[in-house]
Each structure stands twice: as structure tokens, then as C-alpha cells.
Write a structure and sequence with these properties.
GO terms for molecular function: oxidoreductase activity. This is 3-oxoacyl-[acyl-carrier protein] reductase. Belongs to the short-chain dehydrogenases/reductases (SDR) family. Helices cover 41% and strands 17% of the residues. The protein is α/β, with parallel strands linked by helices. It has one domain: NAD(P)-binding Rossmann-like Domain (Rossmann fold, 3-Layer(aba) Sandwich).
Length: 245
Amino acid sequence: MSPATKRTVVITGGGTGIGAATAELFAEAGHDVTITGRREEVLAAAAKRLGVAHLAFDAADPAAVQAALDQLPTGIDVLVNNAGGNTDRRRPPVAAGDLAGLADGWRANFEANVLTTVLVTEALKPRLADGARIVTVGSVAAKQGSGSYGAAKAALEAWNVETARTLGVRGITANIVAPGVTLDTEFFAGTVSEEWVAGRVATAFNRRAGTPAEIAQAIFFLGRADAGHLTGQVIHVNGGVHTAR
């Protein structure tokens, strides 16, 4: 790949699952990739396997994002906002009537999914090349509802439209890829059974879950230099589940 076609790519939450699968695609295509996340050991292992750079920091912490800027690339062509997940799956259930616990849960999902995306994107805006691509991982939950997690992903859809509008004059696009049930990730944190998965994927037109590689392919396409007229969109990669009623 010539220097003129090589692109600089930053992927948050790049150590596992969809983020790692996306990093693998961009790296295999010859691009310069940096993955980020909170866990140094996980990132280092993934970076070694994929042949990419890595930087550990908490994307929901403004001070940590600011401090990371000294080590993040400049001239970024593709920013993939993948950090996030349903924090409710790692927290104890909130008792009925516990409004403080409910508020904590909603804040946790907002921070993990919205703040990680907003803070990193805002910090890197001055470093985005004209014609850059911003791709954010959303969820079918934004359409179907899933408590605070679905609400957080829905908030990202509104943010994405504003981002696409304000940066469009620079030729920068902003899109969301919305998976449904996707296995071989850390998302469910061992909290679901095979029966639960079967029930959820029964509404998919192809009657199956997705894979990280399939989601990564959609992200990779949106990150292409020649995908410049597709912006402000939510691309559903969930077997048609978003149409279920």
C-alpha cells in the first residue's frame, strides 16, 4: 500500500469483540491502527496479535482522555467509537423503589456509551483529516428499548446526526452501525442462557445471531475513503431484527 492510500485509524474498545475484529480488518488492509481501552493487559495482547499500536485509558474520564492526547495519532482518517456495553449486566439488580440505585444505573450506561463516544470524538476533532470517517457502534436496543442501555444508544443516534451535520462541510462523515445479538464478545458477561439467545434471534430474518466479523465489515465499509456520501445514518446489521414488532 502506498503512503497516499494508507489511512490512520483509531478504534476505542479495540481489545476484544467487535473492536478487535474491526482492528484486524483495517490492519490486514495495511492501515495504521491504534486500539484503545481501559485494560492494559487485554489491549497489549490484542495489539501484539494484530500488529497494531495500543493505548490504555478510560474514555469516560475527561482527564484521562485529555492526558491520552499526547500519545494518540494526528491526521486521523477513521475514528471508530466502539467503547461501551450494557453496564446493567455487570451490576446487581436495582430493587423496586430504589431511586438512587436506578439513577446510578442510568448514569453508568450513559457514561459507558455516550460519554466515551462524545469525549473521544470531541478531543480528536482537531486531528480529524478532511474527509475523515466517524463510525460509532450503536445497538438495535435504541429502536426496541432495553432500559438505560437502549436509551443511551438512542442518544447516540441524535448525537450522530448533529455530528454529521456540523462536520459535513469538511467532507467528514458520521454513521452508526447497530448490531443485534452478537456472540463471541464480552457484551453479555455470562448473563444469558442459550434459551435466551434463541428467543432473541427468533425474530431475525435469518434466525441467527451476528458475529463480530460481520459487524466489522460494515464498519470497514463506512470507513472507506470512497464512502463519502453516506452520512448521518444508522446501518442495521442485525438480521432484520430492528423491523420486528
